[in-house]
Amino acid sequence: MFASTSKASRDRAANMAEMADRLGLSTVPAAWPTGASQLARAIAACERCDTEQVCSDWLARVPKSIVLPPAFCPNAEEFKRVKKANERS
């Protein structure tokens, strides 16, 4: 049981990192408008997500660069806010 939870956690973390990368976002806390706390909230939302496999499948099919995150993503709005804030800087 613990091993599958650990694997799921790694898969979710990889999905989040890949999603951020495709959106042109960094997973370095300093790159997020409010820093580590905002990134930590996004990571926590990803860890609670129950669409891990949907996300993995979606990432396997989309281009390497995307403008918007998918609607099913629990961080969709957060990613949009960070992207918008970074574009203004």
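Above is the first protein from milestone M3; the second protein from the same milestone is given next.
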Amino acid sequence: MILFTSGIKQRLNQNRSIAVYGAVSIFCLILFIIYDRFSHNVRSPFMTYLFLWPLLLGVLPALLLRLFPGLPRPTYFTRNAYNSGVAAVTVSSLLRGIFEIAGTASLLQTGLMIAGFVMIGAGLISYVANALSAPSPD
């Protein structure tokens, strides 16, 4: 019984992750379209491709975990570090796009991008370490 309910909860978490990251990707795409409409033809690739960060770093891994139930499940730390990293990289890309369009720059945005990739890396390292230390399902 415990394994059954735990499996349902994991699938629901993956479905929720796919839905949330998908909604964020759509929101970022709509934000770009609206911002581009009023930007006087000044564009930034960080703003143009903003929707790709949550799509590739969020939807794709969650979809892989959903499609391949044999993969190890991420721990709370892994999920929190990874999701925080994706959020930081997405916000940093948004800020960089706004700054480039405005013709300015900020070191804080660069620091946020680096911190985001560090958190993504920490989440991935944690996932691999937990997957290697987990007993085989034999």
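Note on the second protein: The first helix runs from residue 2 to 37.
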